[in-house]
Give the backbone structure.
Amino acid sequence: MQTLLIVSHPDIIDSGSQQYFLNAIKNEENITIHHLEEQYPDEKIDIAKEQQLLSKHDRIIFQFPFYWYSATPLLKKWQDEVLGEGFGYGTRKKPLDGKEFGLVMMIGVAEREYQAGGEELFTISELTKPFQAMANKLGMTYLRPLSIFQFFYLEEEQKMDYLIQYWQMLMMDKEKSLANREKWLIDQLEKTQNTSAAPNTLRFAIDQIQTNRDKMDELKMVLDDMFLD
Amino acid sequence: MQTLLIVSHPDIIDSGSQQYFLNAIKNEENITIHHLEEQYPDEKIDIAKEQQLLSKHDRIIFQFPFYWYSATPLLKKWQDEVLGEGFGYGTRKKPLDGKEFGLVMMIGVAEREYQAGGEELFTISELTKPFQAMANKLGMTYLRPLSIFQFFYLEEEQKMDYLIQYWQMLMMDKEKSLANREKWLIDQLEKTQNTSAAPNTLRFAIDQIQTNRDKMDELKMVLDDMFLD
């Protein structure tokens, strides 16, 4: 599976969260990192080139800071120009039909505020309806998004937990069984061992698998007890 | 009441709908038409000037084509930069608190598609949640939006019906009683008679009032009949 990660941020160098996540995938073969502001400093988007890039990938991810509950200006421009009539919609042929679409959003406000009665009033699912509608229009499968809340305040372990979810979002096939996730994580780990990735990340990932296994063992014991009677 | 109409369209000269509506209000004293692409051809927004402009108005309207279920790139840039920390949020003082906020959207797809089971899947109310959340965050009152569907295909009379709604959106105080709407429309008409506005528009507006009056008269007769027994 080939993933196209379309990143947009008006000031990416100063964004700790963007740097953290992008660093962790920079050597992945199956991910194309496509940073719009870097690619188009004059904001003149090469539409044909972008459409070709989309055609070559199976999963398309938008990664951006969630300012005013929406994408960045340049990412919106990219949507309006690249996904125009004849490519995005308006013809019988839908070039993106059957591909997967997902969002990775860096969010400055705490998760608990995104609900009725919270300061932000609506849930992330409600606020991202324009993107769900876009995926629907293009015939794409909308993935569960990755919302990263208040990255700046997180403990190291919480950051790593997000990192594993990020890896999964970008690289893991959609099968959702525990066995599959475990297998995928082990593969990912083995690859990571052969590169210079942070040993902390490695340690954390191993712990994650171990925790999962322990939970499975506990569950198995409970079930065994039940059927002994 | 002073209204600030913030218009954004990547190609406004070629937009028949934009020209139609903007022409109809160009001589109104209480509306400031603020076209972002014209004001900032290099897209460098004068933040202090924009914030000052906002402070001087009571009702703020965004007018834009509803591409990919959201605002234009330049309007999003305006939101991100002008409504930044310290002005839009992040301080105890909310400079826009108590003002009114509304959307005027030109929409290319038929209204019936904006619902569950329709091609667009979601309603306009669902898709505009990011703007509702913005108004909430800024302490502004969110007005019922004006969604103009498939303007290009409309009959002249339907266009005029939208035009009256547009006038109301930009100029009419929020009181919603029929008497108020009638009074407002008559005032508006008298003003229009003194300018060079289209006689068709005038005729149509008079018909609207007459229709309203006829309906009231009918209702009154029904009520009278009921209480005669």
In short: Chain B has two domains: 3-174, 176-229. The mean pLDDT of chain B is 88. The longest strand of chain B covers residues 100-107. Chain B touches chain A through 28 residues (CB under 8 Å).
